[in-house]
Amino acid sequence: MSFCFNAYGVVVQMKFSKVSSQPRKKRKAMYSAPLHHLQKLVSVHLGKELRKQLKKRAIAIRKGDKILVLKGKFKKREGVVARVELKNSLVFVEGITSKNQRNKEFLAALKPSHLVALQLTERKGRQKAAVKAKPSAKPAASAVAPKAAQSVETKK
Fold it and tell me: What does pTM read for this prediction?
């Protein structure tokens, strides 16, 4: 069994495993999808260090994440995500701006596929432990040593 969006944008189970190949139906499903489904469409690849740490290739981008632009006019520029538009699958980054003909500056819209996440903000739920936890053996070893020393002193 597979899943599909119905006319109201609700995920429903289909009778047959065939999903429509008609572009108009796929387009309609994407435009009428609920926001929690659109969140997956704004996922970006992780940098090498984050990929090793989290053991994931990509993650949904959020406000406050630090990113690097890989493609386009703003290539090789870093910044912090200021805003994410789920409806249009666009990311706006602080410090990356464009000008209109009246010389008014505004944040440039970037596609998530052109970005790489370098640093993530704190997450809730499952991702919270993965982002926050950094294994370090030094504090654990120092915490064990005083307890061992106390037990030796009490025996004497």
Answer: 0.68
